[in-house]
Every structure is written in C-alpha cells, then in structure tokens.
Amino acid sequence: MPGWLRRLSLRNKLVLTILICLVLPSVVSMNVSSLFTRDAVRTQVTDSSRESMRIVSQIVNAQIKNMIYVMNFIQFDEELQPSIRELGRANETTDKGDVLQYKQTIAKRMSTVIDSFGNLSVTVLLPNKEYVASYTTFAFNPTDFMKKSWFSAVEQVSGYNVLWIGAEPNYSESTNQPYLLSAAKPLRKNDITYGYVIVGLELRLLQDLFNQYQNNESMVIIDEQGRILVDKDSTTIGTKFPYYDQLPKEDGSSFVKVAGEDYILLSSHVTPEWQLVNMSPYKTAAQKIESFRKTDFLIQLFFLVLFAVTLLYMVRTLTKPIARLVQTVVRIESGQLGERSNITGVDEVGRLGYVFDRMIDRIELMLEENRREQELKRMAELAMLQAQINPHFLFNVLNSIRLKIMMKGDSENAELISSLSSLLRMTINRNNEYIPLHEEIEIIEHYVRLLNSRHGDRVNLRISAASDTLLIEIPRFLLQPLIENAYIHGLKSKPGEITIASRICEDGRLQLEVRDSGVGMTTERLEELRTHLVTRPTKHHHASRSPSLSGIGLQNVLERLRIIYGHRFDYEIASGPDQGTQIVLRFPQQAGKEG
Predict the structure, then answer these.
(1) CA–CA gap between residue 240 and residue 233 (Å, rounded)
(2) How is residue 223 annotated by DSSP?
C-alpha cells in the first residue's frame, strides 16, 4: 500500500473507496459497452454473411453430391458392371459389333442418371483405352486424360474415395465455358482397378449463383493450394486467391483490410480439398448504437452523483462514533486507563464501543491481579532460593558415606550407595535430552540393583544388546518405565527375569525390546490395553509427569516417542497368560532429526 494511502484517515479511505467503486464501474462500463458494440456489429455482419454462405454452401454441396452420386452409380450399378467389364476386356480380336453394343448399353444406362442433372459431363475410361462419354468426342479424345499430370494420382485413391481434380479446360462441346469442375474415381473390385470414371461439372450454375451478390462481395471455391476453382469472373480461375494466407485455420471467420476497408472472410469445406470462401465488406453500425451509449452514460452519471452524495452522508454518520472511539484509545494509550468511549447503540459500532469499555474494565482488573501474582511469585522464588540445596553437596555426601562404608569392609552397601548416587545424578542432570544406549542400560542396571536391595535378589536382568547399537543416542529414561511396569505388573514383585535386547532393523531403525517372564495378560486385557494406548493422552497425562522414576507410565513413553519421531516410530505389545509380556519399540537412530 502506498505511503500516502496509509496516512489517510479511515473516513477519507472510505470516501476514496466509494468514489472508486462508483466511478470505476462507469468507466469500465463505457469501455466494455464500446467493445461489446463493436463485437455486436461484427457479429451482425458475420451472421449475415454466414447465412448467405449457408445458402450457397447448400447449393454447392448439392452439385458436389450429384458428381459423387454419378460416380457411385457407375461403380455399383449392377446393369452397368457386366458391360463395363466386357468392354474393358475387348481387344483387337473382339468383334466390333460387340464393342459397339457394350458402349451403347453403358451410354444408355448412364443417360438415365446424367440427363436428370443436365450439367455434368461423364467419362468412363478403361485401361485398354476404350471409353464411353456423355459428350461429343470429335474435338477431344478421352484417352488424353491418361496423359494428364493428375491421372497417376487417381490410381493412388484408396477405397471408395474421390480425387477432386479442380478446374479443367473444357473438353465438352455442349458448353462454351472455358472450364469444367472435375473429379475422378477408380473403379475397383477385390482391389483390382478395372476402369476410371471422370465427371466434369459446368460452372454456369455456380457462377450465376455467385453473380447474385454485390460487386464488393465475392464468393469463390479454392483448392488446398489456394488456387481459385470457381469464380464469377472466369479469368481468375487457376490463379491464387490473394487472401488465402489470412483464411481461418478451420471453418470459421477472420477479418482483412482491403484498400483501407475491413472485410470479413468466411470459409467452409465442401470437400476435403476444396473450400467455399465468402468475402464480405464490414460496414460499421456504430452510429445506430451511439445514441444508446450516450443515454446510458447520462443515466450512469446522474446516479453516480446521487449515490455519492448519499453515501458520503452515511459515511460521515457512521464514522463519527469510530473517530470518538479512536480518541478514547489514544488517551488510554497515554496512560489514562479511566477513560471510556461511552458509545451506545444497537448496531455494530455501538456494540463495539460497549465491548471496548468492558474490555478496558477487565484489563484494569487483570493488571491488578497480575501485580498481586508477581508479588506472590517473588516471595515464592525467594523462599525457594533460601531452601535450595546444591545437588553437588548431596553427591559429595553420598560419596563420603560410600567411602566410609567401604573402609569398614561393607562393599555391598557401598555399591548400593554408588548406584543410588549415579541414579540420582542422572535424574537431577537434565542437560542432555538424549544419551547413548549403553548409558541408559547402565542406569537400568543401577535401578534393578536398588530394586533387588529392597526386595531381595528377585529380578534377574539380562542384556542382549547388539554392539552396533550401544552408541546410538535414545531419549533419557526411555527404558526405566518399561522395566518398572515389568517388575510391578508383570512379575508382581516376585522373582523372575527381565530381558533388554536391541538390534538394527532392515530399514535402518533401532529396535528395543523389553520382555519379562511374568504372569502376562489375557487376550481381552491385551486388547483393552492396545485400545487405550492408541488414544492420544489428554492434558492430564502430560501434567502427571514428575521427576519421580515411577510417574511417567507406558502411555507417556509411547507418546513421547510419537512426538519425537512422528510416523517413523511404531511399537508392538505381545502377551499371554503365564507367558510374560513383550514390548518392542522401533524408531530412527538419529534422535530428534527424523520425526
């Protein structure tokens, strides 16, 4: 946000926002209206040209379909096929009368279809250079078709497709037009070509159709190279359409400029190779719409002024209590906590003022309570400092007692005091959250030794730790709660064996296992325990942690590992009646880095 805008008051920001919200839509509306008006005119011209295009396209498609129909008729008519095949097999030894009979049969059958169209010139050409034509052949020998450059492409036509040749010089004396629109098709059976059919369409009908349009509007048929095939001006046939490169990629429309005037180009495929193109002048209709735009602008301007006056009055009314609230806040900031806004009302501003005053009341009360709590806290800290005993003093005293006992020859009790000293030192020292596994095992050995000193040598601790796991760091006091649970709940304070094992899993994680030879659990009790452990501990569980060694619990141990290692941690619990209990923990080797 610019600096000048940040420095404006809330009221001025609202006024500026309102003006922008009122003026900007009007400006945008005028521009969009202008844009839509231009698009509407273009759409109108395009729709008109497209309608003309559609009518012409229907007529052109009808002529194209007539050509296709004649070629298909000759290829599939059952009465024609025997005569065409016999004529195609004729040679010098064939009786001339039979050849003439074949030609007459073919010509008579062809005339039943061709005569109904009246503007087609049809040639049936056979590989042995025999032919049948629907036109006089005195001035043109149909076998000359075989010398044309396009004739070799007829043989390449696949299936029942057609080769659209284009505008060919007129070879029929029945019309005086310089060109015929031609197409050819091979006659095949079982992939063997036994003849060819060439159809020429007179351009008179299409040219008369194109002549119906204005002089500045043109309509042509072009091939895929852009050459003109049909135009109302025959002199342009065979030349390239000048705006071929600007035609739309697919059937559609585009705009071009000709002598400074806009034209719209429409194209539509009448065959896969030929396009019907319509070129129409683009005449603007902006003058007809200009009056509507001016009227719309005046209406918007009137309502703009009306809304601006109304909203500015409403803004002033609404922001006045807010300004008073700001003044109250400024005075409170300066230390005058007794100030109140005294704003009333049922709207949001009134409720805001009421809530703000009540909030200041509570803040004053909280500040007073906080002063009292700070005084009590300082008194408690002073009492704690006065009662604090240096932990090193305790360790030194315990070591002195151990030395005196050893000097008296009681090495067993001296060793117990040493274990107690080591255990207390590890308990009090909280500097390291993680310790090597061998140190954790050493703490467990001290702990079990102290347990046995209280209840007799009833717990046999077995260590089965892989050598490559001893230096891996694990969370401090991770195993002690498990040993305590095994002793209290598994062995029921009776003699037995507790085993600690460790190894590296295949996925690189550390696996710790604690099992006992105690009473175990029933299947129902085991399921109940697993269900309980799946539930995340509540706030009460966290609060239950204490420096005592027996106050953590199995669930807190698992939750502690979940927090540290996340999804990389998992565990298993197995047990059975009189089969003891086994707890397996798996987590990454690097503590605190792979959670």
Answers:
(1) 13
(2) -
